[in-house]
Amino acid sequence: MTATKGLEGIVATQSSISSIIDDKLTYVGYPIDELTENASFEEVVYLLWNLELPNQEQLDDIRNELRNSMEIPQAVIDHLHSYDLKNVHPMAALRTAISFLGVLDEEADNQESEARKRKAIRLQAQVATIVAAFSRIRKGQEPVKPRKDLNFAANFLYMLNNKVPEDIEVEAIDKALVLHADHELNASTFTARVCVATLSDIYSGVTSAIGALKGPLHGGANEQVMAMLSEIGEEKNAIPYIKKKLENKELIMGMGHRVYRTGDPRAKHLKKMSEQLTKLTGNEKYYNMSVEIEEYIKKEKGLPANVDFYSASVYDSLGIDHDLFTPIFAVSRMSGWIAHILEQFSNNRLIRPRAEYTGPKLREFVSIDKR
């Protein structure tokens, strides 16, 4: 047996949910470009879970189910208040709060199909509420309850800021949610599938996935991009800063992708949204710097921007705290995690790969008095 580092190029399972073929991303066969321009996040959630786009009645149903399930138990709010809010990372808070939801859910270990669907709705709805509630609690503000007249994206922004968002803000978040919803067998999704393949519960699977997403080589990249842009400060500093990073052989976050060779098909949508929002908020320097950096890295290293690169300036333009970027990723990717968890349950086999042993050959045991 010979190991492949990082399992690169290894096909670990079959899936009907999303595909990356010839640098084209599809959800259940629909190109990401068409979905981003034409579908709402709720439509995409339905698509990933049911493998078909909803008709109007089905869309109305899932929207209502999500709206009606967004409120989180008071025990979770009290739990968030108990954290060391000055030091805890929002992803750690989210990971623990989602696990706590599993403790409170009487159906947590119910593996019947209808129970799984109910838990899926609750998890998708409440992850947004938890992120918004944590954001407000750590600022000394009261959590805001969701409204029944707003869609998922608008409700999320409303719960964050306690005001009804502008249409362009809702459009930006909705597009970002669609773009991040699923991405084949990425690290967090694979983690979720490995977990539930043991027939563990859906909360354990999602909690495991959040732990994997927390890392800067996965979901944390957009937060690191914004930290870089903030450190650069002004447009004139961008290229000298990047040159120094490259000379020191430091990684430029948000550039390149393990799977894509010619470019991440999702990046252009957030690039366009970044241009619009930074102009609207007077923060055009972040968009301009991003374009300069992307062009320079592409020229010097042949690496185009990935989806994380421009999502940073989009979220910053919406006034979102930088350390909430990855939790927002989780709000979206919850839809994909759940889709893969349900698919794993439907045709399960324990995931148990082997390792190439590189330790010492067979040795004789030496008693303690002779060591």
Descriptive notes:
This protein is mainly alpha-helical. The protein has 16 helices and three strands. It has helices at residues 32-38, 41-50, 56-68, 74-81, 90-104, 113-137, 152-161, 167-180, 187-196, 202-213, 221-232, 238-247, 267-281, 284-301, 307-317, 325-346, and strands at 18-21, 24-27, 30-31. A three-stranded antiparallel sheet has the order 1-2-3. Strand 1 (18-21) and strand 2 form a beta hairpin. The two termini are 33 Å apart. The mean pLDDT is 94.
Strand and helix map with partners:
Layout: E1 18-21, E2 24-27, E3 30-31, H1 32-38, H2 41-50, H3 56-68, H4 74-81, H5 90-104, H6 113-137, H7 152-161, H8 167-180, H9 187-196, H10 202-213, H11 221-232, H12 238-247, H13 267-281, H14 284-301, H15 307-317, H16 325-346
Antiparallel strand pairs: 1-2, 2-3
Helix pairs in contact: 1-8, 2-16, 3-6, 4-6, 5-6, 5-10, 6-7, 6-16, 7-8, 8-13, 8-15, 8-16, 9-10, 9-16, 10-16, 11-15, 13-14, 13-15
Strand content: under 5%
- The counted number of beta strands is 3
In terms of per-residue confidence, which ranges show pLDDT below 50 for 5 or more consecutive residues? none
Number of helices: 16
What fraction, in percent, of the residue positions are helical? 55-70%
**Widest beta sheet: strand line-up:** 1-2-3
Core attributes:
371 residues, mainly alpha, 3-stranded antiparallel beta sheet, 16 helices
Sum this structure up briefly.
Helix content is 57%, strand content 3%. The protein has 371 residues and is an all-alpha fold.
